[in-house]
Amino acid sequence: MARKLPPKDVVIVGLGWTGAILAHELTETGLDVVAIERGPWRDTATDFNIGYMQDELRYAVRRDLFLQPAQEAMTMRNTTSQTALPMRDYGSFLPGTGVGGAGVHWNGHTWRFWQSDFETKSHLTQRYGEGRIADLQVQDWGVTYDEMESAYDRFEYLCGISGKAGNLNGNIQEGGNPFESARKREYPLPPMQMPYAPTLFAEGAKSVGYHPFPTPSANLSKSYVNPLGIAMGQCTMCGFCERFGCANYSKSSAQTTILPLLMRKSNFEARCNSEVLQVNLDGAGKMAKGVTYIDSSGVEWEQPAEMVLLCAYGLHNARLMMLSKIGKIYDPQTGEGTVGRNYCYQTNAGIQLFFEDKNFNPFIASGACGQTVDDFNGDAFDHGSLDFVGGAGINCIPTNGRPIGFRPTPPGTPRWGSAWKKATKDNYLSTLGFSSQGSSYAARGNYLDLDPTYKDRFGRPLLRMTFDFPDNDIRMSHWVSDRMVEIAKALKPKQYVEARRNKSWNSVPYQSTHNTGGAIMGADPKTSAVNKYLQSWDVPNVFVIGASAFPQNAGKNPTGTVGALAFHAADAIRNQYLRNPGAALVQA
Amino acid sequence: MKAIMKPSRIVAAVAALVVSAGIARAVELPFDQINAGRYQAALGDCAGCHTAPGGKPYAGGVSLETPFGTLVAPNITPDGATGIGTWSEADFRRALKQGIGHGGKRLYPAMPYTAYTKMTDSDVAALWAYFRTVQPVTNEVQSNRLPFPFNIRLLMAGWNWINFTPGDFKPDPKKTDEWNRGAYIVEAAGHCSVCHAPKSALGADKGGLTGTVLQGWFAPNITGNLHEGVGSWSAEEIVSYLKTGVGRGSIGSGPMREVIENSTSKMTDADLKAIAVYLKDLPASDKAAPTPVATDNPAMQTGARIYAVNCSACHNGDGSGQGALFPKLAGNSVVQQGDPTTLIHIVLAGSQGAVTAAAPTTPAMPSFAWRLTDQQVADVLTYVRNNWGNAAPPVAPDAVGKQRKNGS
């Protein structure tokens, strides 16, 4: 029996990027807010110590900062005809845990989705006809890019994103991304200084007629003070971003941009090592009463609240809705139900170039310091004569030259022994890689639900993922891989090796922690779980914030859009919801 | 108005001021006095000792580790049983200006009556008026935890006879009003000498603000000395440091962190400027900059390598630091104090910067005690103290070992 706590105005589940942004925004209005985080408290000097943060074995191989399957596992299968089995370890994607969430150990690529991304269905239908997307279940977001512009801007200025605008108020800017939708002002900081590898990649891409530009980066090109007055440092290019916390206050995270201020507010409280078991609903299932959580001693607590904000990782948001009976779980046979619908991922491929005479010094790196070609992303190019929709960004972002993980060798090299040692020595400095990060478009059979067999340590059903790459996305990826080969050939390596994307999805090798959907936003309660303000259609005092809201994923890293959605939802709560609490912001 | 007016009545009087402009004149004075008293409490940093971390304001409880033993700051809320609710204004004035508490009890000079004695009667009266408005809190504090014989309060009569000269602040007519205002804050309510003046064997100030060791830190020289003191700081840099915690590449931490957060960040710009003007004019100690340790000294050579691996990522290879985040080491007067206690403390234990409205980041340096030996700490500090134009005596490994043993 849970012990009941004094009520709060707002309870936030998860204190990562979205939880921290919402907590900051809502405490500003005077609301009393508690965030419940299942992982530990983490801060820069105490947990990302400069003296040991670059421990590759601990953080990259053993994955010290991540969610462990013993705490929460998931089951997976490729199609509904299979029986899902639990993933014994996280591999293909690595969910975070702890204060700061996955925003602690991300690389820092910070994109805006485009106008055409937000209106995927209507845009593609209008341009190519309904038939082209007949096998897909793509949808519009219910918001437009123009509605999101200021929210993107606020997230970028909160973080101190380093980049070059390509489209300022409709005017194409030299050196930026000419395909992006219009932004109202420049990035807060100039792009990072480029190492040799992305510089060479950009030359090659230009030589075949493409338009490379500096990848927008949350690793800072200069020291910065954000609008909250919080100072960040210049990135030192140490090459320990992804899977690591930043010891230098130079990678944007909740810790480096919000928490110093948030944690000192008397109307905010963070409870760590406390896992929310469910959102509690009233008898009719129409309003949330709060949450029940369990602390690290195994004691259950009921936290009553006027509002519940699900700000966990997208997959966990979807599962918590299912466990709490908020909305109806999606059924791929009938197409009914919305929670779990349109689970999407990322369709990636790579290419590695081996040179004789180059020295890339790969250890001079940071998570998001590189060059991108967006000529073949989204709908930047005409798909009229092609057999797919969607696209991919081509990214040359050498994130690290770490001693355990970065050992490029050409095919045919033994996996161990003196020949392997010689090959790693010969190729360590002279190998260049780039990759395509492709859109992942929704399909009827790709979804999330609760596993009928496997349960977690509290006896709750595990999340079940049913996913395979849609044929459309595979065709897209191969076509973009052909474009990567063009760039590779222009660079004249002694050898290039492709890693193309093929069916079926395998949960073991790392691919991307860009899991999207499951609680998608939209204009129609029949096909979306939350409205355009991320408010649950079914339980209006619950908001669900994160990549869970993406109706499908673009060929870009999701964090920029996740951060923007957090500001977008915060504005809706502050300016609309609080005037009439408990009411739906959009009439179904 | 009687000064011992009950707090509730003052609140009522202030409320009356708000609702009825017609009688505003009658109550204007107490309101102003309470406001002025709140400011005096900030100048005097009363909260620094009398408010425990996370505790109720002024309810006591901060332990002060002195060379003679532990003292705990008492409850000074107007609670009758455990605070100063039964005191009169005269009691209060006598405590501040003579070091004699209610009922004739001798105070220990950890309560800086040696400085507060210089406060004007009107400032003391304002402070008293303000403390009457503070929320009374019942919190029994056992203040005197000194060992025998120091626990005998009467000994303080003798101590005072030797070390204490009661009396008001005397302005220097040859100086500007601004200078005199600065001197008044520094010497009276601000009680800067309590930390920054060298101490006699009896724990009394020996005069001057040339720095001294306390609580495992070295409170630096804040005279006009160009090398160790604030002589090379501009008045604006001093104001910025005191107001925001960040100035001239330095970030306030250690015991000064609390002073910045509770006291100096709440002072008016005019008062901070006056403090700066006064400090910069304080006669520089006669110490000249020493000759820097030669670059071919083995400690400098090893120190350079340790610095590159452990320190340069934040403080930069050229010691330039990064604004409000990482202190500048090159040309930093704190780095070049004759006594390296503060630097050793920071490297061994780490440290976190002050939080102020203007600089909320509170950046922190992690502890390196687990990673660097005494010799390595000494070498890297010798290097930092003698590179980029810095000059200071080398650091001995023994000094590091001693501090490590003492827990900092």
Write the SSE topology:
The complex is a heterodimer of chains A (588) and B (408).
Chain A: E1 3-4, E2 8-13, H1 17-28, E3 33-36, H2 44-47, H3 56-61, E4 74-77, E5 85-86, H4 115-118, H5 120-128, H6 145-159, E6 167-168, E7 171-172, H7 196-207, E8 212-214, E9 224-225, E10 231-232, H8 254-257, H9 259-262, E11 268-271, E12 275-281, E13 288-294, E14 300-310, H10 314-324, E15 347-354, E16 371-373, E17 392-396, H11 418-427, E18 431-438, E19 447-455, E20 461-466, H12 471-490, E21 495-499, E22 542-544, H13 559-575
Helix pairs in contact in A: 1-13, 6-13, 7-12
Chain B: H1 7-19, H2 24-43, H3 46-50, E1 63-66, E2 69-72, H4 89-98, H5 113-116, H6 121-131, E3 144-145, H7 155-163, H8 177-187, H9 193-196, E4 212-214, E5 217-219, H10 235-244, E6 246-247, E7 250-251, H11 255-262, H12 269-281, H13 298-310, H14 312-315, H15 341-349, E8 351-352, E9 364-365, H16 374-385, H17 397-405
Characteristics:
heterodimer, A: 588 residues, alpha/beta, FAD/NAD(P)-binding domain, 8-stranded mixed sheet, 6-stranded antiparallel sheet, 13 helices, 22% helix, 18% strand, globular, B: 408 residues, mainly alpha, 3-stranded antiparallel sheet, two-stranded antiparallel sheet, 17 helices, 6% strand, disordered N terminus
